[in-house]
Amino acid sequence: MKISTRLKLLSSLVIKDEPMADIGADHAKLSVYLLEHKIVPFVIATELGSATATRLQRAVNASDYKEKIHLRTGDGLQVLMPGEVSTVVIAGLGGDSCAKILSNNWIKAASYKRFVIQPMTKMNVLRRSLAGEGWRIIDEQLIFENSRFFIVIVCEPGDQAYSVNALEQELGSFIPQQHDELSMIYKKLMHKKYGQIVEVLKQTETGRNADRIAYYLEVIKTLEETL
């Protein structure tokens, strides 16, 4: 099966030879790829609603691996048993939604060894939530596909809360220190974006905006030190 660069990256970050769960599995492409390449022994593929679950069921039935893909319908981790899988993949949701899935039951979430999360937006919300709970971000990967950047966050349960500065909330602690071509392009793009945000906020400055302006100015200043 041919899959996107993004899904191939996700597949490379799961714990090999141990079961995994794909939360919001869509067309089951990641599940099929993992089984086809013998990366995991079985997959639990989930969807939230009946319509998307039906679509997922059709995709699984059309594959050669329907006996190794266990389908479940429900919200986030609620359809999993504690410790049932080693890796949980959550891709394509907003960072706030990913954080909500975890925070619904941090104790249950901590029963899984690793989370591979690819947020579409609000990564700062997710990083703050992980830091507040003491979860370790062990890697972050940046890719460019279909004319947009994607960041994949790999994290593992922990219990020692830590603080994250403004830049770490926005870009993490890995990418700001990287100087390959793709990372530099991304950092320059984000530097420009934060500058534009500050200018917009200054036009309608209020007490709340003053805090946000200070926050983004800190991001810009710290980011400039890495460029």
Could you explain the architecture of this structure?
With 227 residues, the protein is of the alpha/beta class. Helices cover 44% and strands 19% of the residues. It contains nine helices and seven strands, in the order αβαβαββααβαββααα. The termini are far apart. The model has no long low-confidence stretch (mean pLDDT 94).
Taken as a percent bin, the fraction of beta residues is 15-25%
Numbering strands along the chain, what is their spatial order in the largest sheet?
A: 3-2-1-4-5-7-6
Rounded mean pLDDT score: 94
The total count of strands amounts to: 7
Distance between the termini: 39 Å
Classify the secondary structure makeup into a structural class: alpha/beta
The Cα radius of gyration reads 19 Å
Question: How do the SSEs run, as a string of H and E?
Answer: HEHEHEEHHEHEEHHH
Percent range for helical residues? 40-55%
Topology:
Layout: H1 5-13, E1 20-23, H2 29-36, E2 43-47, H3 50-61, E3 69-73, E4 87-91, H4 95-103, H5 106-109, E5 114-118, H6 123-133, E6 136-145, E7 148-156, H7 166-171, H8 181-203, H9 207-224
Parallel strand pairs: 1-2, 1-4, 2-3, 4-5
Antiparallel strand pairs: 5-7, 6-7
Name a few traits of the molecule:
seven-stranded mixed β-sheet
Give a quick summary of the entry.
It contains 9 helices and 7 strands. The chain is an alpha/beta fold and 227 residues long.
